[in-house]
Amino acid sequence: MKRITTLGTVFVVGLVAVGLAVAGANRNWSTHANGEMEVPVRDTQGQGQAIFRLAKDGESIDYKLIASNIENVVMAHIHTSTGPGANGGIVVWLYPSTAVGIQAPAGGGRTNGVLAEGTITAANLTGALEGKQLADLVAALDGGTAYVNFHTNDGVLPANTGPGDFPGGEIRGDIN
């Protein structure tokens, strides 16, 4: 009986150790964004990439946004939705900064290369995640309900006239 108790204790301690190791491991997510993923679909040559890495302590996420063949990017965000193909609200601002409500000037020209790099913390969460923990964003990233959207605006009315002028979003990519 003592041997069974000892084996049980060793098993439980082992499970806890494995759980802690997984919790502290770096986690990564990425997406490739294009006009075909946008809802509704956009006719554009614009492309984007977003890369996210959770810090070992779980308190921050570093990110990099890369864009090519896209003009007049004014904003980029993480949105959450009910799943792929569904639109949802903004939960993190990524470009031009993580400060809520900041936009780059309209008509900014062509982007090819790194658009933005930064760090996300719980303080940067907005919308449905405002006041929540970073773990809630991680759950959305893990659950396939988060996407990145790159918004463009040429500064000339009317809006939505073609590439470089889709204020509601020109390219999108589901994060996985």
What would you note in describing this structure?
The protein is of the alpha+beta class and 176 residues long. Helix content is 19%, strand content 36%. It is built from two helices and eight strands; from the N terminus they run αββββββαββ. The protein has helices at residues 2-24, 134-143, and strands spanning 27-34, 47-54, 61-71, 73-80, 90-95, 110-120, 146-152, 171-174. It has a four-stranded antiparallel beta sheet, covered by helices on one side.
Largest sheet: 4 strands, antiparallel
Number of domains: 1
Task: List SSEs in N-to-C order.
Answer: HEEEEEEHEE
Indicate the overall shape. Answer: globular
**Low-confidence region ranges:** 5-22
Overall mean pLDDT score? 87
Q: Report helical residue fraction.
A: 10-25%
Would you count the extended β strands for me? 8
Question: What is the annotated CATH architecture?
Answer: Sandwich
- Spatial strand sequence of the major β-sheet: 1-2-3-6
Counting helices, strands and paired strands, the structural category is alpha+beta
The radius of gyration over CA amounts to 20 Å
CATH topology: Immunoglobulin-like
> What is the CATH domain class?
Mainly Beta
- Count up the helices: 2
Distance between the termini: 47 Å
Query: In percent, how much strand structure appears in the residues?
Result: 35-45%
